[in-house]
Amino acid sequence: MGSIFHPTPRRGGVRLAALAAAAVAVAGLGLAVVVGHPSKPGTSEARVNVVAGENFWGSLTEQIGGDHVRVTSILSDPAADPHLYESDAKTAAAVSRADLVISNGLGYDDFLTKLVAASPNKHRDELSVEKTLHIRGDNPNPHLWYDIPRVSTVADAIARALVVRDPAHASVYRANLDRFDQSLKPLLAMLAAIRAKHAGAPVAYTERVPGYLLADAGLTVKTPPGFAQAIEDGNEPSPGDVATLTDLITNHDIKLLLYNSQATSSVTQHIQTLAKQAGTPVVAVTETVPPSEKTYQSWQLDQLRAIQTALGN
Questions:
Q1: Statement to judge: residues 213 and 118 lie in one domain
Q2: 122-131 pLDDT tens trace
């Protein structure tokens, strides 16, 4: 099996262009264990074949790789619950042919881990976002793509992985990575604006999907942890947790309710109805990039705008 990338967060003095000189240069870039397998060294027409577990990581890869990558994103259906995904023969074939596989980790895309194990390939590399971000702790939130300040670290890891596969285009990946980092600035600015005006504002969600985003914006989540965990696991929340969240809404103790529109149930629909009846703003979030959005950045920016508007700008 190919290497697993565990990059440390990027430091300003490190340049991916240096990788083009020699494969040994990767040893100084914070990659734990790397063995490069360029698809067609020295040829300009070669493209790195990438399979991403989810279309948000696929979006990053397409932006960084440009014309030099071919990306297949597995989870991309906005009408489907990602937690219920079952792989098929087409997906298995794509994984078996991949030069690089990008997984989210934390149990979110275990189907991908199984597909990789089922088709051993020593020339295939793997990148785990969980390991890239060094996630620790008991039952961490798996929705890592909602942690916008750390997405640049993932983008950097993707660029490094592409350079290992295709050092001839290192300068292209470097330039595209810089462009991607610049494109995150409006999102970071909006997070800062929300935090400056609404720090500590009480909000609720039906499950942890936007958890990192809300924390980065300085908002305080009041949802009972047991309620959110039950919904995430596909179970019925306890009557006590339902009663607690209901009281938060009917007593006007929250400023905003967020719900996952890709994983609804009778309970979450009831909570939405209560919020609307109470005059509490309700904002839908999704687990994957909707077809209406061109990029990861536009998707997250639109969701941030909805949150900002709901809180009163």
A1: no
A2: 999 999 999 9
